[in-house]
Amino acid sequence: MGKAYCFYQNYREVRLLVIHCSATRYDRDFPVEALRSSHKARGFADIGYHFYITRDGELHRCRPVNQIGAHAAGWNDKSIGICYEGGLDEQGRPADTRTYAQRCTLMDLLRQLKRDYPEARILGHYQLSPYIHKACPCFDAENFIAPAMQRQKVQPDAGIGNFPEIRALLPKLVKAAPHRAAGPGVARAPAPQQPACLMDMAEREIGEAGGRQLFMLKEDFKMLEEKGIR
Question: What is the C-alpha separation between 88 and 21, in angstroms, rounded?
Answer without folding.
Answer: 9
